[in-house]
Amino acid sequence: MTFDSAAPASGGAGPARFPLYGPEFAADPAAAYARMRARGPIVPVELSPGVPASLVIGYDTALDVLRDPGTFPKDPRRWEAKIPADCPVLPMMMYRPNCLFADGAVHARLRGAVTDSLARVDASAVRGYVERNADTLIDHFAPSGEADLLGQYAQILPLLVFNELFGCPPDIGDRLVYGMRGIFDGVDAEKANAELTRGVADLVALKRERPGADVTSWLLDHPAELTDEEVMHQLVVLQGGGTEPEQNLIANGMRLLLYDDRFAGDLSGGSLPVEDALDEILWTDPPMANYGVTYPRRDVELAGVRLPADEPVVVSFAAANTDPSKASEHRAGNRAHLAWSTGPHTCPAKGPARLIASTAIERLLDRLPDLEPAVPVDRLEWRPGPFHRALAALPVRFPAEPVHTVPGAGARPEADTGTDSGADSGEERGEDTGAGAARASGPSPDESDRDFPPVEESTRRPEAALPSRLRSLRDVLARLWTRR
After folding, report:
1. Is 225 exposed, middle or buried (0-12, 13-18, 19+ CB in 10 A)?
2. Which residues contact residue 481 at a Cβ distance below 8 angstroms, ignoring those fewer than 6 apart?
3. How far does CA 34 lie from the centroid of its chain?
4. Average pLDDT in the 54-59 region?
5. DSSP letter at 467?
6. 3-state secondary structure string, 385-448?
7. Beta carbons of 5 and 42 less than 8 angstroms apart
8. Whole-prediction pTM value?
9. What is the per-residue pLDDT for 443?
10. What is the pLDDT of residue 5?
11. pLDDT at residue 213, rounded to an integer
C-alpha cells in the first residue's frame, strides 16, 4: 500500500506535518523523531511555516535516497520558483552553482576542484593553526575561572582556522560568518545571504589579484578553470560546512564530555575519550541534523510513500543514525553513521573537520582539565532551526589559570595598538556540506575515512607571527565575549 507523504495522519499518529522549527523541536528533537517513527521511515514535515517537505528518518531508506542521484537529484530550481524570496529556509536550499547542488558531469568537475584543493591542506599545519589559536582564546578567559565555551571558544576558533586555510582577511571572514549564521538560523536570512555573497565575492577578487598558498587560490588556479562565480559558490559550501557545523561539533562534543557520565569521569585522560565522544555525537546528535536535500523530478514511490515531484526530500542524519532497527551500544570507532552523508555527495572535508574538532577539544582539556558545567543540563538552550543541532551557550567553571605561554609558539597575542601592520592579509569520492574523521576504526557506509597527507605547496607555514589583522580580530572577539 502506498501513502501520500502529505496525507493527514490516522489513528492519532501525529499531525499532518511535523514542524521542524521553533523552540520545542530545538529543545528535544529526539522526542520529535520518536513520535515520527509511528508514521514509518518517511514522514511529512514543515521546514518553516508553509514550506512542506518529506523527512527520511529510516537508515536504509536514507541510503536509498543518498545513493540514487538519478531519482533524487540535487537541483532545487523548479521547487525554488514557487518559493517567496523572503522564505527563511531559502538561502540554505536555493540553487548555487556549486558541487552541493549539481549532479553528474557538472558535479564531478566542481567536486574535483574542491577535493583536489583540500588535498593540498597539510594536516600538521591545520593542527598547528588550531592549537595556537586555541591557546590565545583560552588565554583570554582562563584567568576569570568561567567562560561560555560556545561564544568564547567553539564559535570563534573555526573562523580563525578558516581564515588561515582560505587566505581570508579577518574583516571579510567576520562578514562571512555573520551571513552564514543568519542563514542557518533563518533570521533575516535574505539580508544574511546578501552579506555572504558580497563577502565571498570580495575574497575571490582579493585572491585573484594576490594569490597565495591557500584553498581559495588553489580553486582559482585549478585545471578545471572555474569561473570567479563558480569559485565563490564552492567557497559558500565549504564555509557553510567549515564554520557553523564545526562549532556545533566542538560544542556538542564538549557538552557530552561535561555532562554524560560515560565520558565525564576523567576529562584529563587523554585523546581516547575525546575520540569516543566525537563518535557518539556523530551518531546521536550530529551538528547537521537534517539536510541532504533532494528534489525528485517526478512523483516517486519509496518505502510505501508517494513523494511529490519538485517537493524537497530531506534526509534526517540524526534520526537515521538512531533508527531503532540499527541500534547498537558500540559506537566508539564505528564510522558507519551518516553524519557526513554518503554517496556522491559525501562531505569532502570530513578529515580536516574531525581533526579540527578533536584538536580543539583536546587543547581545551589539556589547558583546563578541571572544567565543570555551570548550569544543569536541562537549562542549556538550543538555537531553533530545521537543519542544525546548535547550542545557544555552554557555560562552564574551572579554577582560574594564569595566561599560558608556549615556548616558540608564533600565535601569541600582542599589545593592542589598534593599528594594522598590513601583513598578508572510496567507492565514491563522495554530502558536500560539512566538516569528518581523521582515521577510521571501522568502515563508513561508502569508504573509510582518510587522513589528508602533507604535500608540496601546502598550507604549512613557518612558525612566524600571524598577521596583525588576524590577531586583532581574534583578540577583539575574545575580549567582547569576556565582557558579556
Report:
1. exposed
2. 140, 141, 148, 151, 152, 156
3. 24
4. 98
5. P
6. CCCECEECCCEEECCCCCCCCCCCCCCCCCCCCCCCCCCCCCCCCCCCCCCCCCCCCCCCCCCC
7. yes
8. 0.80
9. 43
10. 59
11. 95
Query: Can you spell out the DSSP letters for 319-369?
Result: HHHT-GGG--S--TT-----TT--GGG--TTHHHHHHHHHHHHHHHHHH-T
Environment class of 257 (CB within 10 Å of its CB; exposed 0-12, middle 13-18, buried 19+) = buried
Task: Report which DSSP code applies to 122.
Answer: -
- Burial (CB < 10 A; 0-12, 13-18, 19+), residue 216, is buried
Nearest to 86 by CA among 55, 45, 54, 50: 50
- Residue 384: which residues within 8 A CB-CB, separation 6 or more? 21, 22, 23, 25, 26, 185, 186
Sign of CA dihedral 379, 383, 388, 390: negative
Residues 148-185 have pLDDT tens digits of: 999 999 999 998 898 899 999 988 988 887 787 777 77
Retrieve residue 138's grid coordinates.
583560552
C-alpha span between 171 and 372 (Å, rounded): 34
DSSP labels for 282-319?
HHHS-SB-EEEEE--SS-EEETTEEEPTTS-EEEEHHH
Q: Tell me if 136 sits within 8 A of 413, measured CB to CB.
A: yes
Question: Residue 130, by phi and psi: left (phi above 0), alpha (psi -120 to 50) or beta?
Answer: alpha
Which residue in 307, 388, 290, 302 sits closest to 341, CA to CA?
290
Mean pLDDT of the chain: 82
Cell digits for 38?
A: 509511528
pLDDT in tens, 156-166: 999 889 889 99
DSSP classification of residue 384: -
> What does DSSP assign to residue 152?
I
Parallel/antiparallel/unpaired status of strands 290-294 and 390-391: unpaired
| H or E stretch at 148 | strand 146-148
Q: What is the rounded distance in angstroms from the CA atom of residue 54 to the CA atom of residue 43?
A: 6
Cα–Cα–Cα angle for 257, 259, 264, nearest 5°?
A: 50
- Measured CA distances, 22 to 27, 127, 152, 382, 384 (Å): 9, 37, 25, 10, 5
Burial class (CB in 10 A: 0-12, 13-18, 19+), 210: exposed
Query: 19-38 pLDDT, tens per residue?
Result: 999 999 999 999 999 999 99
Number of continuous H segments (helices) and E segments (strands) in the chain: 17, 13
Q: Within 10 A of 270 (CB to CB), how many other CB atoms are there? A: 11
> pLDDT tens digit string along 306-362?
999 999 999 999 999 999 988 766 666 677 899 999 999 999 999 999 999 999 999
Tell me the three cell numbers of residue 69: 542521484
User: If you average pLDDT over residues 256-282, what whole number do you get?
Assistant: 77
| Sheet arrangement for strand 42-48 | 18-19, 42-48, 51-56, 313-316, 290-294
271 by DSSP, 3-state: which?
helix
Contacts of 116 (CB under 8 A, 6+ apart): 218, 222
pLDDT of residue 272: 57
